[in-house]
Amino acid sequence: MVGHLVELSASECDALLRSHTVGRVGIVERGFPLILPVHYQMVEHPAGPRVRFRTRADNVIDHPGGPVSFQLDGVGSDRTSGWSVLIRGVLVTAAPLDIAEADSIRVLHHTESLEIVPIETTGRRLIEANGCWTFDPRGYL
Predict the structure, then answer these.
(1) pLDDT tens-digit series, residues 44-84
(2) What is d(CA 22, CA 41) in angstroms, rounded to the nearest whole number?
(3) How far apart, in whole angstroms, are the C-alpha atoms of residue 23 and residue 39?
(4) CATH number of the domain enclosing 14
């Protein structure tokens, strides 16, 4: 029997985003998709929570105003399930960080703070029906 996907609620997506610190940012660079790992944090904003990360000035992702995606995923400890959260939005320059926030996502030479203004956040969980998911972590070593 084949596994099935279950939609994650907004609160489940938010909880997963807040419980991790490394995700992937996706942009289009010179007509091609570019996916980069980033150390991030969730920050509160009057319009709702946002993903914040830092980059070097003039880095390939230091281009506020453009479309962006952010993905976070994981595998259950029993390796029979997995999940993924995807945010699609717009990249904006973030307000300066206070000291505590800056320390939590400090990366050497990364001086520019960017945030993703979410337009859509979706999440899914894969549940394997027969308890034998085809994922093998050795494929990532």
Answers:
(1) 888 889 999 887 777 777 778 899 999 999 987 777 788 99
(2) 8
(3) 7
(4) 2.30.110.10
- The per-residue pLDDT for 39 is 87
Predicted confidence at residue 47, as pLDDT, reads 86
Q: How big is the chain by its Cα radius of gyration, in Å?
A: 16
If we measure between CA atoms, which residue out of 68, 82, 86, 92 comes closest to residue 10? 86
- Scan for tokens 């400090």, then name that residue: 106
Do residues 59 and 121 make contact, with C-beta atoms less than 8 angstroms apart?
Answer: no
53, 25 contact by CB (below 8 A): yes
Per-residue tokens: 61 = 């992702």
Which of helix, strand or coil describes residue 126? strand
- Look at the chain and report how many structural domains it folds into: 1
Domain of residue 104 covers 4-140
Contacts of 15 (CB under 8 A, 6+ apart): none
- CB-based contact 55:80 (threshold 8 Å): no
- Residues 47, 118: Cα–Cα separation, whole Å: 10
Q: What is the pTM of this model?
A: 0.79
112 contacts 91 by C-beta, under 8 angstroms: no
